[in-house]
Amino acid sequence: MRNSNGGDKVENKRVLAMYDVRGKQEYIYRSKHIQEIVGASAIIRDVFKDYLYPAAREIRNQAEDMGTEEAIYQYACINPETKKRQKTGAPEPVEPFSLADFERRMEEAQYIGEVVYDGGGNFLVLYQDRETCISVNRIFIRELMKNTGTLKVLCTILENPDFAHYREDNTRLYEKHRINEATESVIYPVNSLPISQVDPLTARPLTTVRYTASGGDFGKEKMSLERAAKYDKYRAEQRGGDAGERILDNIVEERGNESLLAVIYIDGNSMGAKVQSCLEGKISYEECVTELRRFSAQIQRDYVEERIKAIGDMLDKKYQDTKKRRTIVSAGDEMTIICKAGDALEVVKAYFEGLPREGSSCAGIAVFHSHAPYTDAYRLAEECCESGKDFMKEKRLDNACLLDFHYCQGGIGISLERIREKELQGDKPSRPWLMDAYSGNRPAEFYYSLELAQEMAEILRKLGRTNVKSLLSVALNSPAGLELELQRINAHREMPVDFTLGGKLDNEQKRKLLYDMVLVYDLWFRGDEKEEGM
User: CATH 3.30.70.270 in the chain, residues?
Assistant: First the structure.
């Protein structure tokens, strides 16, 4: 390549760019409408396909018009082997990164960059030079603002990367990115004037109209650009969909009678450590990027694709109607599902049963009424998941799978910690529970588990619902009263039952487990009650 004055050949300075979608959770859950939440998550999932790739094509076509041919090489789309479902545990087939192939593509007219790695919240693109990167980003950000209103993507670039030392470049890139995060603007691109109608949640001006279920007599509802973008994306995902569809009402069978729902938040554990482990002993871009691609594909398969299939298969056996559950978000190693409250425990069990033995996740469930604010229920489910992660850190557990849950009965606007502090009067619940059959390292010391809960459920089903429900208040307020109540129940039985499960539980452990189980007994543990010896 010669300069404009006809001088000696000048090497292109390659640029490694890292894209980071900012405030994902805030953007998704800023709305209280499920349709918009689904649409927002789809916008984030497709943000680069919908806006970055077209921007790259526009820049490339300025030099040589190649129509709709991609301008950024995408390894996941070019190699069809990555789309094949493999047996769990088998290495995921991916196209290896090759510096020679990258340089060859940059010499061709079609490509101006290549996706280095896409996974775990990271999106890295290697551009042919800095000018190209900046030109693509100008169009990308402009179209993003024009079409989504408030979604922000931060781009950090590293010039002239050293292809022999990926990990050193990655460290430098993240150092620059942390500085960008600390100095990025927090001002939205458009301010609302005092005379404008604004969205009460976001204070964004209402600039457009959509037909919705809550749009009054004519179905029209004024919206901000952000809300309209989320709503339009949802409709596109549903191939037109029904403007009057109410997702939560689809899931419940009879409003007011069977209106309890559950939001389930599941997140993988120690993914950062797993990434570092997979790169152990690898140095160059070709080694590290190839391994990262394989690792990302395997996580997507093991933690998302296979789990969604297992959950779907389980629910398909119960319901012919696929609307009885709804996956809201699934990306990387996390997912959020909304379903009937009575199905929540089975959904979580279906998730963990097929997880690879070396896999590890925590699950949080929030049970709520369909008319309650979904966003608050989601927040509590996420906090339940975090309580499992905190428990792992406290007990120094590795590869453990845990479940925590909360029944939203009041105080939904405050934190899970404060709710439990008031509800339990400073005491701690038995939750989180170890998912025993699905954990690779059951600790020697005592922890509560789903296995223990199911063993206790077999006993409770013999007592009858009235006796079980009588345990709730005494288990919470009076340890001595609980013992008297258990003695009363056994006094009326021909064959007394052992509430310590053969000595596995002391009185305090028994009290906590009984309280937590009775809270959700009708939903998950009642089954076919068989009163014996009464």
Answer: 256-448
Q: What percent of the chain has pLDDT over 90?
A: 44
- Cβ neighbours of residue 429 closer than 8 Å, sequence gap 6 or more: 420, 512, 515, 516
C-alpha span between 344 and 58 (Å, rounded): 47
Q: Which CATH number fits domain 256-448: 3.20.20.70, 3.30.70.270, 3.40.50.1970, 3.40.50.300?
A: 3.30.70.270
Place of tokens 């769990």: 88
Q: What is the Cβ-side half-sphere exposure of residue 57, based on CA atoms within 13 angstroms?
A: 12
In 374-438, the DSSP E strands lie at 402-407, 433-434
Q: What pTM value is reported for the model? A: 0.83
- pLDDT tens digits along 221-278: 889 899 999 999 988 887 655 544 555 555 655 444 457 889 999 998 888 888 888 8
Q: Would you tell me how many other CB atoms lie within 10 Å of the CB of residue 176?
A: 13
Contact assessment for residue 438 and residue 421, using Cβ atoms and an 8 Å cutoff: no
pLDDT score recorded for residue 423? 84
Distance CA 301, CA 449 (A): 27
Helix-strand-coil split of the chain, %, nearest 5: 45, 15, 35
250 near 325, Cβ under 8 Å?
no
The torsion angles phi and psi of 139, rounded to 5 degrees, stand at: -70, -40
Q: Measuring CA to CA, which residue among 395, 403, 402 is closest to residue 443? A: 395
Q: Could you tell me which residues come within 8 angstroms of residue 377 by beta carbon, excluding any fewer than 6 positions away?
A: 261, 263, 366, 368, 408, 412
The DSSP letter of residue 30 is: T
Topology of domain 15-183, CATH = Alpha-Beta Plaits (3.30.70)
Q: How many residues does the chain have?
A: 534
Tokens of 44: 């984030």
Picking from 215, 242, 203, 213, the residue whose alpha carbon sits closest to that of residue 30 is 203
CB atoms within 10 A of CB 345: 22
Query: Residue 329: is it exposed, middle or buried by C-beta count within 10 angstroms (0-12/13-18/19+)?
Result: buried
- State the first-to-last Cα distance of the chain, in angstroms, to the nearest integer: 92
How far CA 331 is from CA of 26, 46, 404, in Å, comes to 16, 11, 21
Strand 122-127, strand 15-22: pairing: antiparallel
d(CA 428, CA 443): 20
